Amino acid sequence: MVKQVLFVQGAGEGAHAHWDSKLVASLERELAEGYSVRYPQMPGEDDAKYSAWKAALIGEFGSLEDGAILVGHSIGGTILLHVLAEQPPKPRLDGLFIIAAPFIGEGGWPSDDINDRKDFSEWLPPGVPVHLYHGADDDVVPTAHVHLYAKAIPQAVVRVIERRDHQFNNDMSDVARDIRSVG
Length: 183
Fold this sequence. Notes:
This protein is an alpha/beta fold. It has helices at residues 15-31, 50-61, 75-86, 144-152, 173-182; strands at 3-8, 35-38, 68-73, 93-99, 130-135, 157-161. The chain is built from five helices and six strands; from the N terminus they run βαβαβαββαβα. The longest helix has 17 residues, at 15-31.
């Protein structure tokens, strides 16, 4: 059986084709057989709007099967968490993996588009393992953001990885290892 992985890109001009595509390629190489990585382009990537990305994600959720894995990078991870807290998919998820995501709210970044949420643990689908990653050398989103998420999702596994930047140096080996461990 092939396990579905849905990868949600970050934002910014060219993010899908020129930046996060390298993360997806690394993830596909590292996971190899037994996994199928879907990588849809989110609407308006150069100016991400929560409502548009939420609608796109809910559409993507409709084609997921039980045991799917969700991965979100940067603002894609932020939006993925907020959508899951508001409207989780019907299928049972085997894992949620969030990479270099900005925290919205006190101590993090402000947003006119995304409501701040201090606690995700009660709102995320129950029993789904959550892994949070951040590169110690991320110069886009401060490392403090992953610690804010750790407080908001106390059951999460948190990994701050040395010598990794916001794009994780295009190396998803740590994430792939954890995905294989849950599914």
